[in-house]
UniProtKB/TrEMBL annotation:
Pfam families: Glyco_hydro_1 (PF00232). The keyword Cell cycle does not apply. Belongs to the glycosyl hydrolase 1 family. Keywords: Glycoprotein, Glycosidase, Hydrolase, Signal. The active site is at E400. It comes from the Eukaryota. Homodimer. InterPro entries: GH_1_N_CS (IPR033132), Glyco_hydro_1 (IPR001360), Glyco_hydro_1_AS (IPR018120). One of its GO terms (biological process) is carbohydrate metabolic process. The lineage of its organism: Eukaryota, Metazoa, Ecdysozoa, Arthropoda, Hexapoda. One of its GO terms (molecular function) is beta-glucosidase activity. It comes from Parnassius apollo (Apollo butterfly). It is an enzyme of class 3 (hydrolase). The keyword Cytoplasm does not apply. This is beta-glucosidase.
Length: 494
C-alpha cells in the first residue's frame, strides 16, 4: 500500500519530462491519470436518511422549487447512496485510474459541528473508499462541493468568519477517518461559483448580495482553505503522506477585439474571475490581485462606503494562504469574449460593476445544452498556458471538463468535445504546462443545480423514471474507457 500511495503522490508532485513534438497519435505519459467526477448532492439522494442533516441545497430546493428549472430536488437523484457497488462496478468497466467525489458535510456532521459525528456518514464514505481501493481506483475527495449544513447557513454561512474554524473542525474529522486511505484532497470546489452565484446570484443559499456578501464568502473560504492546508501539513502529512489542493474554475477570457481597452478588460476579467482565488494561493506575492484591490477600494469609496467592500487579510493571513496548495485543481468548460465596460458606477454594489467588463460569447461557437457552455477547445490551451506563465507552472489536475447534451446514448458530440479538448490539453502540455491528470465531468448524469435534471453531462445515462435509477453507458463511455486504458486518444469511436 505504502508504495502505491507514494506513486500517486509522486504523480501529482514530481515534475515530469516535457511532452515532445506533435506525434500523429496523441498519447499521454505513462503515469497520466484519467478519471471521472461527481459531487454528493448531485448524485447521492438519501437526503434525510440515517441521521444526515439538512444542507443548503436541500433547503433551497424544498422551499424554492420555483428557482429550479424543472422544480425538482436531488432528494433521490441517481440514488448513489444506495447504489455504491453498482457505481464502482461501472467505474471498473470504464477502466479509470481515479474517481473524484465529494463528501457531504451534513452527512458526516448533521448540524455542521464536530461534537456530533454521524456514524452512518462515516460508514458510507468509508465503504465507498474501500470499494474503490479494492479495485485499484484512487479516491480523490472534495471536502466541500456546495452543500453547506443549513444550521451553519442560519449563522450566516460563509459570510460569518467563524465558519473557517468550523470548516477546520470538519476537516479534522475527515482526515482522522479517511486520511489513512485518501491521498488526494480538495478543500473547496469552485469558490467563484458558490460565492458569486450563491451570495450574488441564483444558487443556494440565494442571497442577493453581489459585490458585498460574495466577497465576505470568498475571504472566509480562503482563510478556511489556508488553515486546512496548514493543519494537514502540521498534523497529518508525515503520517498520511497525501496532497491537499483546491479546485478553481477558469473559463478562458479572450479579448473581444484587438483594441487595447478590450485587452485590458480581458485581463481584468481573468483576475476577477480566477485571480480572486488563484492569486492569494498561487502567486509569489500572495493576497488579492492588485487590480481587484484597486478597483473595489476605489468604487467602494465613490459609493460612500467607509471602507472597501473587499475585506483585507492580515499579514499573517497572507502568509498562511500563500503557497497553501500542493497542486491546482482546474475546472474548465468554455470560453468568454471580454470587452471594455462603459465605466459607469451605480450606487448598488455589484461584482459586475467592480469588474467593469462586458462578457459575451461568439454565437458561432457550437452550443451545448447549458446556456453558458459553448465548445471552444483552443480556450483550454490558452487557460492552461496562462496558469503556467502567471503562477510559475504549478502541477495541474484537471478536475472537471465536460459537455451537456440532449438526452441520447449516441452522444457523438460528446465524443467530439472530448477529442478536441483533450487534443488542446495535449498541445498545452507540449507547450510546457505541467498537467498531471484529467477528470471528465460527469461520470453519470447528475442533478445540475438550478437546471435540475434538464442538463445531462454523464458518460452514463441515468433513467430517473426507473426505481433503480438505471445507468446505461453512452457512446462516450466506451470512448473514454479506451482512452483511460491506453492513455491514447482512440481513433475509432465504437
Ligand atoms: C460544478 C459542477 C457542475 C458543473 C456543470 C461545475 O461548475 O462544479 O457541480 O455540475 O460545473 O455545470
Amino acid at each position: 500500500m505504502e508504495i502505491k500511495y507514494s506513486v500517486i503522490v509522486a504523480v501529482i508532485l514530481v515534475p515530469w519530462l516535457k511532452v515532445e513534438g506533435a506525434p500523429q497519435r496523441i498519447c499521454f505519459p505513462k503515469h497520466f491519470m484519467f478519471g471521472v467526477g461527481t459531487a454528493a448532492y448531485q448524485i447521492e439522494g438519501a437526503w434525510n436518511v440515517s441521521g444526515k442533516g439538512e444542507s443548503i441545497w436541500d433547503h433551497y430546493t424544498h422551499y424554492h422549487p420555483e428557482r429550479i428549472f424543472d422544480h425538482s430536488s436531488a432528494d433521490v437523484a441517481a440514488d448513489s447512496y444506495h447504489q455504491l457497488r453498482e457505481d464502482v462496478r461501472l467505474l471498473v468497466e470504464l477502466g479509470v485510474q481515479h474517481y473524484r467525489f465529494s463528501i457531504s458535510w451534513p452527512r458526516i456532521l448533521p448540524m455542521g459541528l464536530s461534537n456530533d459525528v454521524n456514524e452512518d456518514g462515516i460508514r458510507y464514505y468509508g465503504a465507498l473508499i474501500d470499494e474503490l481501493l479494492a479495485h485499484n481506483i484512487e479516491p480523490m475527495v472534495t471536502m466541500y462541493h456546495f452543500d453547506l449544513p443549513q444550521s451553519l447557513q442560519d449563522l450566516g454561512g460563509w459570510t460569518n468568519p467563524i465558519i473557517a474554524d468550523y470548516f477546520l473542525d470538519y476537516a479534522r474529522v475527515v482526515f482522522d477517518h479517511f486520511g489513512d486511505r485518501v491521498k488526494v484532497w480538495f478543500t473547496f470546489n469552485e469558490p467563484l461559483s458558490f460565492c458569486h452565484d450563491g451570495y450574488g446570484g441564483l444558487d443556494a443559499p440565494g442571497a442577493n448580495s453581489s459585490g458585498f456578501e460574495a466577497y465576505l464568502c470568498g475571504h472566509n473560504v480562503l482563510r478556511a482553505h489556508g488553515y486546512t492546508y496548514r493543519l494537514y501539513q502540521q498534523n497529518y502529512s508525515h503520517l498520511q503522506r497525501g496532497v491537499v489542493g483546491i479546485v478553481l474554475d477558469f473559463a478562458w477570457c479572450e479579448p473581444a477585439t484587438t483594441y487595447e481597452g478590450d485587452q485590458r478588460a480581458a485581463e481584468a476579467a481573468r483576475q476577477f474571475r480566477f485571480g480572486w482565488f488563484a492569486h492569494p494561493i498561487f502567486s509569489s506575492e500572495g493576497d488579492y490581485p492588485p487590480i481587484m484591490r484597486e478597483r473595489i477600494d476605489e468604487i467602494s469609496r465613490r459609493q460612500h462606503f467607509p471602507r472597501s467592500r473587499l475585506p483585507t487579510f492580515t499579514a499573517e493571513e497572507v502568509t498562511l494562504i500563500r503557497g497553501s496548495s500542493d497542486f491546482l485543481g482546474l475546472n474548465h468548460y468554455t470560453t468568454y469574449l471580454i470587452a471594455q465596460g462603459n465605466g459607469k458606477i451605480y450606487p448598488q454594489p455589484s461584482f459586475k460593476t467592480d469588474m467593469g467588463v462586458v462578457v459575451t460569447q461568439n454565437q458561432e461557437w457550437p452550443k451545448a445544452n447549458s446556456s453558458w457552455l459553448r465548445v471552444v477547445p483552443w480556450g483550454f490551451r490558452r487557460a492552461l498556458n496562462y496558469i503556467r506563465q502567471k503562477y510559475n507552472n504549478p502541477p495541474v489536475l484537471v478536475t472537471e471538463n465536460g459537455i451537456s447534451l440532449e438526452r441520447s446514448n449516441r452522444d457523438v458530440r460528446r465524443v467530439g468535445y472530448l477529442a478536441s479538448y483533450l487534443s488542446a490539453m495535449y498541445a498545452a502540455m507540449s507547450d510546457g504546462c505541467d498537467v498531471r491528470g484529467y477528470t471528465y465531468w460527469s461520470f453519470i448524469d447528475t442533478f445540475e443545480w438550478t437546471s435540475g435534471f434538464s442538463e445531462r453531462f454523464g458518460l452514463y445515462d441515468v433513467d430517473y423514471s426507473s426505481a433503480s435509477r438505471k445507468r446505461t453507458p453512452r457512446l462516450s463511455a466506451s470512448y473514454f474507457s479506451k482512452l483511460a486504458r491506453t492513455r491514447c486518444l482512440p481513433d475509432s469511436w465504437n
